[in-house]
Amino acid sequence: MNSNDDQSSQLSSFLKSFGGRNASTNMASSPTQNLLQPKQKQNLMTLPEDNDLDAQIFGDTSESNANQMQLAHMEALIQMKSQQIERLQAEIRVLHRIQNDQAVALEMALQDRRELEKQLAQTQTGIPTLGNAAIPQTEDQKMAKNSKKNRPGSAHFKTSETPYFLENSMFLRAFLRNDQASLDELVKSITSVNDTNTRGLAGQALFSQMQRYMQLNQLFERLFDESGTENLVTTFEQNVRNLLDSRRILLWLVIPSAKVIVSRTASLLVPEGEGLLGKAISEGQRLVLPDPSRDPSYSLDYDGPVISNARVVLYQPVVNTKKEVLWVIQIVDRLSPKGTVVTPSGDDYLILDFLSLSLLRIYQDESRIDEMIKRILTESTRSLLTERQVMPLLETVQLTVTHLVGCESLQIFFADQQKGNLFQLCEGKQQSGSEVNISAITRNDIAVDQAGIAGVAYTQKKTVNVAVANEHPDFNRDIDGEYPNGPCLAVPLLGSKGTVSLVAVARQKKNGLMFTGSDEIILEALSRVSQGALANAQSHERNISEIQLALNNHKYYTALLAVAQELSAVLDTDTLVRKIMTKAQSFIGADRCSLFLVDKERGGLWSMVAHGTSERIHIAEGYGIAGHVAKTGETINIPDAYNDPRFNPSVDKSTGYRTKSILCVPIKSSSGIIIGCTQMINKLGAVEFSRTDVELMTAFNVFCGIALSNAQLYEAATKSKKKMTAMLDIALSLSTSTTLEELITSIISRARELIEAEHCFLFAVDRLHNKLRPLGNVGDEAKEFSIKEDAVGYVALTGSEINIENVENEKRFKDLWPANIKAKQMLVIPVLDASGQVVGIAKAINKTTMPRFTSEDQSLLRAFSSFAGLAFDRFIARQPAEFGLTDIPLIETLSPTELTAVVPSDRLRVFDPLTGIVGSLNFDVYSYPRNELYRFLIHIFTEMGLLSTFTIPIGVALRFFSSIADNYQQLPFHDFANAVSTTQFAFWLMMLNKLYIQFTKIELLSFFVAALCHDLGHSDRITVNAQVQAALDVLYKDQPVNETFHCAALIYLLAQPTCNILENLDSGYVNDFWTLCIDLMLSLDPSQHAKLIEEMDIRLNRGPFDFKDKAAKALLLKLMLKSAVTAEVFRPFDPTKPWTTSVNKLSVVASKGDQKVLLEEMTKYLNETSTPLVRVLLRTMTNVQPLSDQLKLNMNGWKEQLDKLTPAQ
Predict the structure, then answer these.
(1) 613-656: pLDDT as tens digits
(2) φ and ψ at 89, to 5 degrees?
(3) How would you label 819-840 residue by residue, b for 16+ Cβ within 10 Å and e otherwise?
């Protein structure tokens, strides 16, 4: 008899001793015999070994074809399932029999219990009942250790002592652990007990724990039946709650790939590492937490929804041999029979350990099934790889996997390692006209960063498993938008070299919140099947393409070679374009065709249309289909133009033509630079252009690129020859022409011809009368006008060049056109003499071949202007009358008495209304000739009392003024007119509330001389680079170089006896004059601007301005002079009038002729430079409020002009 039989007989004998023989006999014959068979019970928790299962399923496949293998696989699966069902049915029958026997035994046990209770009532009460026994609240291992330690050595027990076999669920522990030795010892100990009461309690404990053990085994069977289904979790939670009465029991599934823990019944997701669940997983052992909300790891967001009011919570992780947590069992508030919350007991821990083991065995069984499925799918690859029709194959794979995984849809993204992107295969159209059967498969390329969740799996080479697709940071609505609110699983397939060959994406789990590890395995197996299908498809496509190419190449090459011969003989671009389009249209079979060439000057493209219209159309860079192709070099072939957002339908609307299909191919030069593109419109006899058409146009455009490059080089050489011929002709005219008009006429005529302008003018600058006079005889009527008008006046005063594409949008100046001219475009260039002064202006109007003058035209006109400058140098000295120099200087019209007087005569005085104009902000210096400007200066010096105080004769003053005018060069913003304007503005400041009475006469003389001479002798040649500037700073001891030069020019000028206005001053006054005058002129260095304002602010912060303080007055004079030298920004600005006299030099230089930039620079200058200056002047003296008011008006005016050019946001 084996050990199990011995145990059965021992238990039978033990039960007979209670007096109920029938009950004991029944128990010995059925329950104990089944409970004590470890091998039989083990069969309930194991599956066949993998090798045996594989042999059952696959057999020997080497001698069968692919279809037979698939059939064999299915038969093997059916046979395996049938065997499982038969085995389960047999086990269920056994369980039913056990339950019946248990019911009989339980009835007998109840009868025995009633008799035992009567006996117990007559015995001592020192031995506690099982229900009142104190079960330690320690871990299972500690309880077992303590129990063994406290066992008595014999069967004799004290009356008040509880036997060890009644403690800590010894029977249940032995059953669950299948511990034969412990069970033998228990039986031996019980049978040796003589005390009837103790034996009765032992019998009661035995029956109770046997019943619990049976419940656990039934639960295991149910879980085994539900394994692999969505009901596993629900079955587990419901049955465990029946075993362990609790407020709530949850089974959490750990999904490592998604880094979340999922409760399906509670519909909750907890991120990995969060809350008490995260703590239990990280520690990997059981946690019992009284008052869990006080635990530091408690999370209101993740623990609160389940255990917000719980008193005791238990977490039991289920850990595999790799120390990986698979599930977590959570028990919330274990309840006693009375309904109170208690701490889990030793029985509870035993049960939880058993449940953990059961779940682990189920997981192992599921893993074996997953491996089996993987083997089945991998084996199926052999038959799939023999399928040439890839799309039906992929559809079958998708249907199979969606069924196995339980998802709504499946997408497969293949990886293109060369391009570095992903693509999907889809059904294509059979090519028309193909002489062989070309596979109807097309691919849709997708950039990795636009592939959504699939792109993340590809980049990271890791599985991506998310519960809600649109919550993933890389969610892409176009790719992932089919099921945005459902779970998504993306599995990459890694090759032997670690590269990703494809990504399989399953979407929308039909049952459950998340995809599981089994789903990942199935998708990975599917990936390998699909990879083989792709290899077949690529091989098939390659073979078909090679066949088609061989059939068509001979026809293409013959036609292209003939075209190449014709194109190489044409050097005229227009003729070449027509020929190219005619040939291309016949080759491709298009209804219309166009050629677009890159516009190097304006950017964008010019179109040359072969059919339908004769006009050329300019297309902005990147605009429309052609613009996109010319910018990116990409070939575009679209069947319906109106479905492409890049298509511009405006041409169709204007012509009534309907564009459908478009083929646009770039044209490149021999160096690979895109020089244009061909656009074929509406394929004849077909809905769209074929792949053959694309290949033909690509090859055709190679010859087009070569021919167009040659034609452009020929035209460039022709134009260069014309330029050289024109320059030589003008150079010859310089030496042979006898009159200025003859020479100027020759220059203008050749310039107009070469720059292709409708009209060309040349104007001479008359500085004495501030006029612009037309020169030459070119058949266009032009009249003289003021230097402050027209774009010509603007260039004369600023020295800048102007190239305007649309004259109507230009608001900087008022243009004066002859009646027969309607200007569209305009190019204006200054004419400089040998010293760099502006002596004339060249002006071209309306480009005949393009909508604007190019940079090459600008360079050409600049070259012709240089010839005009040489002509001026040659003829000005010989024929001054032609330039208005016949006016008699003012000093020559005065008598000796008038010249020696210190009070001006009536002929020199300024009367109303000129008196008011000279003393106002509305003064316009360019409205008066040179002699009139001298009279204004005499008036200013007289009003300030300078002539009479320092005994300066009128003649000396006029010679002083004349010498100053001669030392000012005719440079924009640095001429004599600008000096007079500065002096007049300084005079206006002094006249405000008679401010001049606060200064001494020598201070006033120094101030006005500094204003008149602040830019004396200025030349563009004194502008130096940074290295030279550093050397000059050392030489001049950090004094400003330009301002020092102006001071030196003034010293030299006053050293001339004929114009020395200091002749009658005593030495003390002379020293004071030079000290203050030089100090004022040096203060005009731009680097001193902020320092002067800061210094005045500091003084004013100490108290009111003190006119008795000599240093304070000198500082005020510097600030007033600062404002005077920028007088143009303070004078009234009227946007309806020319801007010539209202702009600042720095703004003009920075703008480089751009109107918007000029407005931005003017606004910036007024804000950053003029506004702080006026602010500090206002703090110093309140009488300059009109200056502040006018500045605000000007700022608003400039801003309004800028707003007109700035598009609304």
Answers:
(1) 445 677 778 888 888 898 889 999 999 989 988 888 887 887 78
(2) -65, -40
(3) eebebbbbbbbbbbbeeebbbb
Sheet with strand 771-775: strands edge to edge: 785-786, 771-775, 757-766, 838-847, 826-832, 802-804
Indicate the CATH number for domain 230-369. 3.30.450.40
- Provide DSSP, 381-431: HHHHTT---HHHHHHHHHHHHHHHHTEEEEEEEEEETTTTEEEEEEE-PPP
CA 616 – CA 378 distance, rounded (Å): 63
The single residue listed with the structure tokens 């009209």 is 759
Amino acid at 439: S
Cα separations (Å) of 1194 from 275, 989, 1148? 67, 18, 17
> For the residues of 594-623, what is the DSSP string, one character each?
EEEEE-TTTSSEEEEESSS----EEE-TT-
d(CA 215, CA 221): 10
Domain 387-427+444-538 matching CATH 3.30.450.40: the answer reads yes
Tokens matching residue 233 = 């979790």
Q: What is the DSSP letter of 780?
A: -
Topology of the domain covering 737-883 = Beta-Lactamase (3.30.450)
CB 206 within 8 A of CB 163: no
* Rounded-to-integer distance, Cα 775 and Cα 752, Å: 15
Strands 590-598 and 757-766: unpaired
Q: How far is CA 417 from CA 421, 423, 426, 483, 491, in A?
A: 7, 11, 19, 29, 18
The answer to whether residues 23 and 108 touch, using CB atoms and an 8 Å cutoff, is yes
For the segment 61-75, what is each residue's pLDDT rounded down to a tens digit? 344 454 455 555 556
Query: Quick one: CATH architecture of 570-715?
Result: 2-Layer Sandwich (3.30)
Domain range annotation of the chain:
3-219, 230-369, 387-427+444-538, 570-715, 737-883, 890-1088
Q: pLDDT tens digits for 1110-1158?
A: 999 999 999 999 988 888 888 887 766 555 556 665 566 556 566 777 7
**Strand 488-494, strand 464-466: pairing:** antiparallel
Which of 500-526 are b and which e, b meaning 16 or more Cβ less than 10 Å from the residue's Cβ? Answer: bbbbbbbbbbeeebbbbbbbbbbbbbb
Residue from 1187, 1167, 1178, 1001 nearest 1097 by CA: 1178
Distance CA 234, CA 253 (A): 12
Q: Are 312 and 290 in contact (CB under 8 A)?
A: yes
Q: Starting at the earlier edge strand, list the strands of the sheet with 287-290.
A: 268-271, 260-263, 246-255, 325-334, 312-319, 287-290
How many CB atoms within 10 Å of residue 1146?
16
1102-1109, Cβ contacts within 8 angstroms, sequence gap of 24 or more: 1105/1179, 1105/1180, 1105/1181, 1107/998
Listing from the earlier edge strand, what are the strands of the sheet with 500-509? Answer: 441-446, 421-427, 407-416, 500-509, 488-494, 464-466
CATH class for the domain made up of 890-1088: mainly alpha
Report residue 1053 CA to chain centroid gap: 64
Residue 102: both structure tokens together: 């248990």
- Which residues are paired to 831 by β-bridges? 840
Q: Compute how many other C-beta atoms are within 10 angstroms of the C-beta atom of residue 662.
A: 24
Give the SS3 label for residue 1141: coil
Quote the mean pLDDT of the chain.
Answer: 75
Q: Residue 844: which of 835, 857, 831 has the closest Cα?
A: 857
Q: Is 37 helix (H, G, I), strand (E, B) or coil?
A: coil
Strand ranges, E, within 120-240: none
What is the C-alpha to C-alpha distance for residues 408 and 180, in angstroms, rounded to an integer? 51
Lookup: tokens for 298: 């408690």
Mean pLDDT value of segment 459-464: 91
**Helix (H/G/I), strand (E/B), else coil: 490:** strand
Q: How big is the chain, counted in residues?
A: 1209
